[in-house]
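Why does this matter for the project? Reviewers at the last site visit asked to see concrete outputs rather than summary tables. In response, this paragraph embeds two records directly. Each consists of the residue sequence and, immediately after it, the corresponding structure tokens. Nothing has been edited or filtered.
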Amino acid sequence: MKLRILVPAALLLGLAGCDDAGRMTPTTQRVGGGAAVGALTGLAIGSISGNAGTGALIGAAAGGAGGFAWDQHQRSRQRSFDQGVAAGRSSR
């Protein structure tokens, strides 16, 4: 039972090191991070209910969606900041 939980968890954590020399975009990092955290959480919850694999898949999907939503929020904040800076510079 423990092996069925530890192997997928180790594989998911191993994917965190797949960044090829820092070339991941912030979007990819946020979605991947969200999916990894969601998968680990789903794995833990699924193992309690008796179906760790399905829990990990559902958790990865939910975490990836959450990571993407967070990325869009952060991008919107950055665009607003950049527009404010540009407006301040043009008013001089």
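We now turn to the second protein, recorded in exactly the same manner.
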Amino acid sequence: MRLLLVEDDPRTADYIVRGLSEAGHACDLLRNGHDALVAATRDAYDVIVADRMVPGLDGLSMIKAVRAAGVTTPAIFLTSIGGVDDRVEGLEAGGDDYLVKPFAFSELLARINALGRRPAAQEQKTSLRVADLEMDLIMRRVTRQGQVIDLQPREFSLLEVLMRGEGRVITRTMLLERVWDFHFDPKTSVVETHISRLRAKVDRPFEVPLIHTVRNTGYSLHAQG
């Protein structure tokens, strides 16, 4: 595989490059995030290995920018920042894996090989459709039976989560985390309030309801049948 390593510590970088070369992989080493961003968006790599704490542009921001540019190359963070929140932040920024220093090279190699075996990511969706409800993710436009539905930004985000999970139960906790970024239950009725507003716009003007309450659990969006 052809790999991109973003690491500014000379000893760590040399150790990894030597090990990857011995394993039969080609490895490009860059020591700052700006150069890595240029390389990752210009050249084709099988896996990116990135430290979070690199000069120029930190690894987290670099991977976010790579994803924003539409590059789907698998990425693993290799860093000494290892708290639970840090790992979650790395994965939500677009990382596919997260390994904390100090590390065993054999584990790093195994994780790189695992990422390299993954099938290529499918092209990012630009629209969603459930029954006669359509969402244009680029234009931020929602229609049902050809009629435009005017949604507030939070309502749009809420509907997007429900549509992406078509047919599955989306719990109240999941909605709080994904739409409001609450990682705890604030004992608020904000979800129920927004679901009610969403129903008034998406369901009530039409014959067939799509948003369904799953008692004591959450909500599910699907056409009945």
